[in-house]
């Protein structure tokens, strides 16, 4: 066996090990949630039609984000067909179940380069996706979450929301200049050369629009899921969007928790009754069941692609 083949086999073994670790974290997370919530789950009788519709909306949102990413890559001078983009997107998303969440960025960049995307477009688009997704989420919360920000326990909430949306808008406008500096700083921290030059303004615009649409449709999926689980929805759709986005962002920003498990649920349990969308008992059920449903929807596509890749490679290696 020559050195080149040995390196390829070693790299493939490393990939398999990383995948096993990621899936292990995800399975552990689901089992822990199930064990902690089985008593609450016995009390509900879901309408599976509404639950299935919520799943369709959620997966359609994946489609929006995939097309947004493909368009960003095209603006950067690279192209990916939809199937390859879906494989990279869903498999790299499994990295959010590893504490730290930065695995997701690295995995997307590496997989995109292996699929023929230029290093600049692969690295730049993966970083852009995460930054814009977070900022767009907070913009959605500030724009649609007025009832939450008018709560008595948040003095000056409405003024804070206006200020936050204005600051976020300025930040988005400054992204073409700010992101290259952020990438250079990240390169110094990691010891890697991540110099990628200026971010195309049109790529940032497309990413912002796609992520804003995605946060709205994710919230719609959550509202539909709530209808399926507790039998009725309370309050406007905008409130569900704001609660879903804010609780998801809280979980995402707690970097040491895989996929924000625990932090997201605590935020949702507090926010749903505050927004008059559920009573405390219903909020607990929705927090747990939506986490289980979300975990399945996030894991299943990536796991299917991994299984398909393994089956396709096997005949050539035997």
Strand content: under 5%
Count of separate structural domains: 1
Q: Level of helix content?
A: over 70%
Radius of gyration: 20 Å
Shape label: globular
Order of helices and strands: HHHHHHHHHHH
Low-pLDDT regions: none
Largest sheet: none
Describe it.
With 318 residues, the chain is an all-alpha fold. The protein contains 11 helices and no strands. Helix 10 (263-274) packs antiparallel against helix 11 (280-317).
Name some characteristics of this structure.
globular, 318 residues, mainly alpha
In short:
The chain is mainly α and 318 residues long. The chain has one domain (47-306).
Helices and strands, with pairings:
Blueprint: H1 3-41, H2 48-75, H3 82-93, H4 102-114, H5 119-144, H6 146-149, H7 157-190, H8 201-230, H9 237-253, H10 263-274, H11 280-317
């Amino acid at each position: 066996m020559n050195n080149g083949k040995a390196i390829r086999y070693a790299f493939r073994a490393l990939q398999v090990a990383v995948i096993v670790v990621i899936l292990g974290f995800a399975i552990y997370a689901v089992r822990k949630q199930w064990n902690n919530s089985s008593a609450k789950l016995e009390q509900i009788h879901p309408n599976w039609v509404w639950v299935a519709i919520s799943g369709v909306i959620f997966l359609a949102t994946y489609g929006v984000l995939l097309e947004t990413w493909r368009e960003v890559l095209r603006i950067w001078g690279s192209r990916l067909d939809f199937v390859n983009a879906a494989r990279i997107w869903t498999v790299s998303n499994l990295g959010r179940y590893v504490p730290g969440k930065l695995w997701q960025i690295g995995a997307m960049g590496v997989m995109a380069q292996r699929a023929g995307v230029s290093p600049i477009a692969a690295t730049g688009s993966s970083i852009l996706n995460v930054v814009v997704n977070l900022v767009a989420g907070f913009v959605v919360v500030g724009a649609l979450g007025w009832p939450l920000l008018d709560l008595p326990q948040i003095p000056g909430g409405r003024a804070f929301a206006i200020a936050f949306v204005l600051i976020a808008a300025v930040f988005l406008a400054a992204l073409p200049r700010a992101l290259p500096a952020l990438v250079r700083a990240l390169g110094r921290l990691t010891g890697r050369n991540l110099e990628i030059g200026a971010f195309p303004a049109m790529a940032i615009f497309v990413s912002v629009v796609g992520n804003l649409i995605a946060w709205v449709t994710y919230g719609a999926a959550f509202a539909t899921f709530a209808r399926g689980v507790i039998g009725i929805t309370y309050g406007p759709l905008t409130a569900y969007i704001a609660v879903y986005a804010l609780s998801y962002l809280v979980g995402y920003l707690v970097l040491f928790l895989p996929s924000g498990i625990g932090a997201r649920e605590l935020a949702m349990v507090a926010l749903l009754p505050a927004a008059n969308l559920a009573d405390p008992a219903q909020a607990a059920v929705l927090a747990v069941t939506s986490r289980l449903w979300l975990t399945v929807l996030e894991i299943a596509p990536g796991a299917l692609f991994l299984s398909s890749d393994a089956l396709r490679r096997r005949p050539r290696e035997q």
